[in-house]
Amino acid sequence: MSLQVLDWRRQVFGLYRDVRAEPDPVAAHEMWCERRQQLFRAHPASANRRAVLRHAAYDPALRFDVALDTAVAPQRIEVATGTDGIVPFERIGRVGLDGIGVLDVWWLASYGGGVWLPLRDPNPDTYGGGRYVLDTVKGADLGGRDGRLVVDLNFAYNPSCAYDEAWACPLAPPGNVLEVEVTGGELLPG
Fold it and tell me: 102: which strand partners?
């Protein structure tokens, strides 16, 4: 299984590399949707090969190129998971998304590190535990430079635990819960 997960991660890293290289966000989103479905359907490390992924149509209003506000009080959370033990995160900043709200941005404070940006919203068509927009330790990186992040909510996706209880997933903490529905991104499977 280890080599299968390694291959899965390589493919995800390659997918997000291709997404960042595509100048048209709509075309990048279509490619992302198609390749995620292919991975779920055919890859041996898939969380659920029976899952039929559903995605909302691309909405340009849900794409943000925002500065990371690092003037935030330090905060650490430790997420207990059934399979990974305690997973520590440290807040490294916040991003404000016009018309949406403010979300905390986290750093995985253990081996490998990485930026993690989850969100949970009241959209009944999405996974109740929340979705991920960025999880760079696993390849989900939409880009950015000079202290800025591309936060495109059209690329919000369900964590693996939404498809299979065998997978452990940190869920969105309080600073990542929105009051408005995010109508873009991956929806509950069909």
Answer: 96
